[in-house]
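Supplementary notes for students who missed Thursday's class. We covered one full example, reproduced here. Read the sequence, then the structure, then the short commentary at the end.
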Amino acid sequence: MRSIARLKNDLSFNKTLEEMIDILKITTAVQLRRLQDERKREGRFLSQLHDSFSILKKGKAVNHPFFQRDREEPCCIVVITSDEGFLGELNSLLMNTALKEKNSGNDTLIVLGERGANYLDGLQEPYLFFSGIGEKVESSEADNLKRYLSEKYLKGQFNRVLIVYAEFVSISVQQIKVHMLLPVPVLELPFSPEDAGRKEEIIIEPSSEAIIEGLMNLNLNYTIYNIFYSSKLSEFSARLMHLEKSSQELVCINRKLFLEYYKNLHFIADKRIREVLAARTLIRK
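Structure (token representation):
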């Protein structure tokens, strides 16, 4: 049985801990809301961008490695982890998914975030390291990653590029997603009866290569930027859910402590009453 002083000290410590968790919950909720307001959604932009690719492919005006590669290996797997606290489970899921996508020793693993790098160090798995996403999602971070991946891809060092990240669905739901960044999955234009037998000539100025390079820079920048946003939203959501779970567990612990505290008080009071009554009985005798 714990002493009254020990129980009072535990209750005081838990009260301080509960206040700290509440502050972290409020801070995380504010960051999540701010990021939701700032997020740029792809919507119509990516749809029209894919339509442009489809038009080029339909007209057979280009044959660019950005669209297709004869081989799938070697592959580059990029995994986005978080360096913030309370996200160990989410980081583990991301890393395990990335390792499952690595099919051979020729594949390259790129890790964003020190927590992911530490995970691979423990497994003695080779990787390339990039800094994790900052508190504020910057377009320069997406541009640096895009530039590196596109250069290596065009040089033939990678024939396929995958990004593993946590996709934000809702505050309580985050999904581990594997997105193929390169080659670009080009959407086909819908077929209509009016197109039957129609021959169209597509004129491209100044050149198909210049158009492809420009569209690809837009596509990769925008896609990686939105993936970064989704990862950051998932990070805040997962942390908020973890803090809420910790808060509920602390409530349960405090209930047990209060019950034990008052049970001990009752036991001590009952014992003293019995001792007083016993003493009075002896005096009367």
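Commentary. The first strand starts at residue 75 and ends at 80. The chain has a mean pLDDT of 81. If anything here is unclear, bring it to office hours.
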